[in-house]
Every structure is written in structure tokens, then in C-alpha cells.
Specification:
The protein is of the alpha+beta class. It is 32% helix and 27% strand. The chain has helices at residues 7-42, 56-74, 82-88, 131-143, 186-190, 210-213, 216-231, 248-252, 353-358, 365-379, and strands spanning 93-102, 107-112, 122-124, 152-158, 174-184, 199-205, 236-239, 242-243, 265-268, 277-285, 291-296, 302-303, 311-323, 326-338, 346-351, 391-392, 398-399. The strands form four sheets. Strands 3-1-5-4-7-8 form a six-stranded mixed sheet, sandwiched between helices. Strands 9, 10, 13, 14 and 17 form a five-stranded mixed sheet that branches. The chain has a four-stranded antiparallel sheet with strand order 12-11-15-16. It is elongated. It starts with 6 loop residues before the first helix and ends with a strand.
Amino acid sequence: MPQLTDQGAIDQAETDQAEIDQAAIDQAAIDQVESDLTAAEQAPAGQAGTGQAGTEAAEAERVACARAALDGHERAGTWMTPEEYGASRAAVWTAAVVLVTDTDGRILVQSVDYRADRLLPGGAVDAGEAPSAAAARELREELGIDGRYPRGLAVDWIPADTPGFAPEMRFPGEILHVYDGGTWTAERIAAVRLPDQEILGIHFAEPADLPALMDAGDARRALSALRARINGSGTALLEGGRPTAPTALDRLGVLRTRRTPQHGTWHPGPVPAQLPVRDHCGWLFGPDGRVLLLIARATGTAHLPPPTAGSTTGAVPLGYRQAGESAHARTAARLTGLPPATDPSYARLLATPEQVRELSDWGPAGADELAAVHTARARLSLPLPTRTPPTELPEDGVRW
């Protein structure tokens, strides 16, 4: 306990007492205003001004002033009534669409009878409806396909000044949810049943063709959602179709250029001597089981590197893809290091084998090649990699 001669304690005691006195004064003022207000409101009609100069109008003004004074004490700071708070909140539309691909990585788009451009399946969220429930309902109504789509790929904020909305709509802006519809097999696609009106047809489009088929914002959103699916890092937040936190795939603009088809049958082992080799690429594994991937900065196209792209051990012929009278040869090896980058036109990334396949157009043989890649990974005693966003490697090289 401080001594009475402690000047700091005396000053603090005086401050505390001043605050108590002020609080008492404030409370007394509130009590007086409440008392005056109650008396004024309970006075009989026509007698509110008895014994005082003034009219009923003047008394009414006094009552209003007393109530305003009381509100001033009760509503200090940022307090609002529920009505005021509700009126202050922004109103937006809400919608939900579903991104579906086929086994070749093409995106399902539909033609509708009310717009010239193509759309992802989906539509407006009804009042009181969850966005994921709206996505399931829309696919059932538009394509005749039952399903659940719990995984979100992207949430996009569309500003109120977005072009294309008629003024009489009074478009307030929109929050649009993009859900993952997965990869549909030929059998599931054959089960699509279109309604009698609204949906004129569907087809699967190469990702790079979306800007020519869709509204610009819709195309940006669909490509961002597809990259989010390939990244595997959760729902992407978009504003006007653009990620607020772009990943390497976003920054490099992958899939903005048509993928080069590399179809044909897969064959394990070395290329036969009589078969010309069209190109020779390497599945070069880092220590976490991911592989080296090259992205052309000018086009966003993905390429496997040549087998000589880095220092390796355990190199073996993995197999080849035969297309006509030539072969696309593949070698598997373990990377021990990368030299400094010598070609600035390419970015070097580490990606899972599945991500490499999803960024490529290899046709049905892609599944066979992917299985061979994982067999080679296991033989090299490397772990099965977790799907994470591809990592861009430093230009000055790396060693493991």
C-alpha cells in the first residue's frame, strides 16, 4: 500500500476521484433528463405548458430536445439501432456455378437461349438457399445430373460497375461461388439430359479457348478456378476473376495457350532402334517425389525438361509414347541439383506428376504413363508427393 506522502499516489487518487465525480455528474444529468421527459410525456393534453410561457408546440419541442439529449447519452460512439445497421450493409446478388472437366482436361460449357456467349452450368442462389445446394439444384435442372459438390474452388467478388448489366437491373454486385464438379467419364457425359428450354447444348472446351467463348470475366474466373483445382491448396479468393493471392500457375498464366496434343499408345522400356525419336524428355524427381516442370513465360505452356536439365542419378528409360511413325521418349531419374538458369524464357517449377498430366494433353495413354512414373518413383525410394501449389525454383540453381 503506498504511503500518504507518496505524491504519485496522491495525484492518482485525485484523478480517480475526479473521474468518479464526473461519472456522478453525468448520471445525475441523465436522471434529470429522464425525469423531465417522463413528466412532460405524462402531462395531460393541453396542460403541458401550465404555469409556463409557451404553447403545446413549444412543449413538444422541449420533449423532443429532452429525448435527443437522452439519446446523446445512450448512443455515444458508433452504436446504431438494428434498422440503421441493416440499412448500412451492402446488398449483393449470390450465384453458384460448377466447373466440370472431361478426362482430357477440357471444361464443360453450355449454350443458353438468352445469351450469345457460353457459361459454366449454374445460376442464382435462391433466398435462404445454401450456395452448394444451389449448385446441385442447378446441375439437376440444367443437365439432369444428380450430385453433391461440397468442394469450393473459388469465390469471386464481381463489382457493381461491371459492364454488361442493364441499368434497370440495378445490379448491386455479386458474390459467385465456383464448385468442383470433378472429372466426368464418357458414361456420365452420356447421361446428361437437357431441359426443354434454356439450355441449348453442351460441349467440352480447351481451357485456352474460354476467352473466345465466354464473357471476359467469366473466362478469367473459370481459368482461375481450374488453376486452383490443379494447385490443390483450397478455395481461391478472386476479385473480378483475378486471384487476390496469385500462385505460380496464376502468375505464369498457365493454360492460356492451347496445349499441344501428344496422343498415342504408351510403351514401357527403351525406344526400338527403327523408330525415330521425335523428342526426349525426363521425369526428373526432386527429393520430395515431385518432378521438374518447365513453363514458357511467353505462352504459359507446360513442358517436361530434357533429361540433361540437371544433375541426376539412377537414370533409366521409362518408356515412350508412339504417335504415327515417331516416338516421344521418356527417361526417369533422381535430381541431385540444378545449375543456374540459362534460358530466361522458361520458369522452373517442382510439381506432382498428376499436376504435370493435368497441364498436358496426352489423351488416354496419359494414365498409363502416369502409372509408369509412379513405379519409377517407388524404385528410386522417393515418397508419394502431396499435392501442393507448384513451387518456382530459384534462377541461381539448387542442390539436394
